[in-house]
Amino acid sequence: MKSALFVVDVQNDFCPGGSLAVAGGDQVVPVINRLLPRFDTVVYTRDWHPANHISFAAQPQFIDQSWPVHCVAGTPGAAFHPGLQVREDAIIVNKATAVAQEAYSAFQGTDLAERLRSLGVDTLYLTGLATDYCVKATARDGLREGFRVLVIRDAVRGVDVPPGSADQALAEMARAGAEIITAAEVK
Ligand code: VGL
Ligand code: ZN
């Protein structure tokens, strides 16, 4: 059994001071930094939007959930939080890079599942932002792809829009088959 650590969207715009700040988003950073050395395989995801992405409220197209402008590719808001250790040997996945498509999951429109399987990975430990959007979607797709999925509760935070959605997301992930654990319980 081989595990991969997922660090989902720990980017400036999702941390306090960012355009789509998640309350306590930066608090996941030290927890993740302590976990990093324990994994052979690490995947960092980045929300990596074009400046006119369909999910931005200023865009005229209809989309069921829109957001302030955030994580525009190459801008400081899209950079990893400065305190996050970024491993040289990691897999980095950019998501929602096309103008007309929203993508919350690390697996959507990427070859990540295949890459992980070819490395012998069968278990995913999820950390990062945001619990109720990108972490939840990544958990769901990881389970659908046949991976064992564990969510590290003290290493995720939610946008909580609508209010309560962060806690609800943990319950939904558990119902879908994910295990909810704490960092202290990792291996
Ligand atoms: C996310 C809202 C919009 C996330 C990305 O990373 O969870 N949330 N784009
Ligand atoms: Zn986004």
TrEMBL record:
It comes from Hydrogenispora ethanolica. Pathway: Cofactor biosynthesis; nicotinate biosynthesis; nicotinate from nicotinamide: step 1/1. Keywords: Hydrolase, Metal-binding, Pyridine nucleotide biosynthesis. Belongs to the isochorismatase family. GO terms for biological process: pyridine nucleotide biosynthetic process. This is nicotinamidase. One of its GO terms (molecular function) is nicotinamidase activity. It comes from the Bacteria. InterPro entries: Isochorismatase-like_dom, Isochorismatase-like_sf, Isochorismatase_Nicotinamidase.
